[in-house]
Design brief:
Layout: H1 9-14, E1 20-24, H2 31-41, E2 48-50, H3 69-81, E3 84-89, H4 92-100, E4 105-108, H5 110-113, H6 116-126, E5 132-136, H7 143-155, E6 161-165, H8 182-191, E7 197-199, H9 201-205, H10 211-220, E8 225-229, H11 247-256, H12 267-308, H13 315-331, H14 336-358
Parallel strand pairs: 1-2, 1-8, 2-3, 3-4, 4-5, 5-6, 6-7, 7-8
Helix pairs in contact: 2-3, 4-6, 6-7, 12-14, 13-14
This protein binds ligand ISJ.
InterPro entries: Aldolase_TIM, Chorismate_II_sf, Class-I_DAHP_synthase, CM_dom_sf, CM_II_prokaryot, DAHP1/KDSA
Organism: Hyunsoonleella flava
EC number: 5.4.99.5
Length: 360
């Protein structure tokens, strides 16, 4: 699959003057709840009304969705409010029912994207559809797996495709429910600049008070839209209570978000930008040169260790370097997180060099 300009035609055709907004409850709970939220969202920027009908939960025994009964409620939403509708599908039977109930946008959840079998089943069931189909990232940070799912849909002649970035599971506890790992979304945009990409701050944060900041970051990174879970009574929602916002909070978020443009034609801006980018290019070259010099020194140490039969890893020395560099970084406005990541990568490369020498 290659990037194609036409990948974003469906989005351009919507003619929006704001990011695409998909909002609605995590789960459809009752007909009354679904319609009440829909009416509150009717005259806002919301383009697609979402509600989960089949809910794959982490553990059995929790509320697992109302099933296809909820599709009738979504049809009613469309009749009463004119809003288009969206839901998650996880197998061929879901697809069939969703299409029968004229759902306009279907998405494949993170737990389905991990399974090529399931994705293929869904792609076959959707073959040639003119509905919009969005693919959430797989739970694990695996870009080829994400792209593979999109390719399967693309090969099934589905034209209105896009992705949803909902963050990634991690073993360690972080402030996020699912760590955003923005670099993955940036890499996806680099390879497929015309494939629409939507951010899902609700699942990334897991907490409603973090949704604004993550949404703003997404817009700053050229995301095309947002999917934000919205409930009339978030605290008493039957699923994902902590991350849902009220319709009025959603409206406020949309109002406060700053929408940036891709570029600006003004000459002064462009010459200042060129100047600073030239500085960055010089520094980047210096960084590479310095890293090459550092590796040469490490190669020398590798040769010495070989002569004396000494182990490659020297934890005490390594620990000293890390501690010193974190402090040095602070003086230059560099975060500890960045310094640790960068020096761990440098250390690994240094070890690889020495391994080659010692075992060569
Ligand atoms: C370079 C050495 O070997 C390894 C690599 C290090 C580095 O690249 O800074 C530090 C300690 C060792 O784990 C060394 O022993 O000094």
């Amino acid at each position: 699959m290659e990037n194609k300009k036409e990948m974003r035609t469906w989005l351009d055709d919507l003619g929006l003057d704001h990011p695409l907004v998909i909002a609605g409850p995590c789960s459809a709970e009752t007909e009354e709840q679904v319609l009440k939220i829909a009416h509150e969202l009717k005259d806002t920027d919301v383009n697609y009304y979402r509600a989960g009908i089949w809910k794959p939960r982490t553990r059995p025994g929790n509320f697992e969705g109302v099933g296809h009964l909820g599709l009738k409620w979504l049809q009613k939403v469309k009749e009463e409010t004119g809003m288009k509708t969206a839901t998650e599908v996880a197998n061929a039977a879901h697809v069939k029912l969703a299409l029968e109930h004229d759902i306009d946008l279907l998405w494949i959840g993170a737990r389905s994207t991990v399974s090529p079998f399931i994705v293929q089943e869904i792609a076959d069931a959707l073959e040639g559809t003119d509905k919009i189909v969005l693919v959430k990232n797989p739970v694990n940070p695996d870009l080829p797996l994400w792209l593979g799912a999109i390719e399967r849909l693309y090969s099934s002649n589905i034209k209105k495709l896009g992705v949803i970035h909902r963050g990634f599971s991690t073993y360690e506890k972080t402030k996020y429910r699912n760590k955003p790992k923005w670099q993955l979304a940036i890499e996806l945009q680099r390879r497929f600049p015309d494939l629409p990409i939507i951010n899902d701050p609700s699942h990334i944060t897991g907490k409603r008070d973090m949704i604004f900041d993550v949404s703003q970051t997404a817009l700053d990174l050229n995301f095309d839209g947002l999917m934000i879970e919205t409930h009339i009574d978030p605290d008493n929602a039957w699923s994902d209570a902590a991350q849902q916002v009220t319709p009025s909070t959603l409206v406020q978020i949309m109002e406060d978000l700053k929408i940036r443009k891709e570029t600006d034609a003004e000459a002064e801006y462009n010459s200042a930008l060129d100047n600073l980018r030239a500085q960055i290019d010089v520094v980047d070259n210096q960084i590479i040169e310095l890293l090459g010099t550092r590796m040469k020194a490490s190669d020398g140490i590798g040769a010495l260790k070989k002569q004396k039969n000494v182990a490659v890893l020297q934890s005490k020395r390594w620990n000293e370097i890390l501690g010193r560099m974190v402090l040095e970084g602070q003086d230059h406005g560099l975060s500890e997180e960045f310094i640790l990541k960068m020096f761990k990568a440098i250390h690994q490369e240094s070890i690889n060099h020495q391994e080659k020498i010692i075992n060569g």
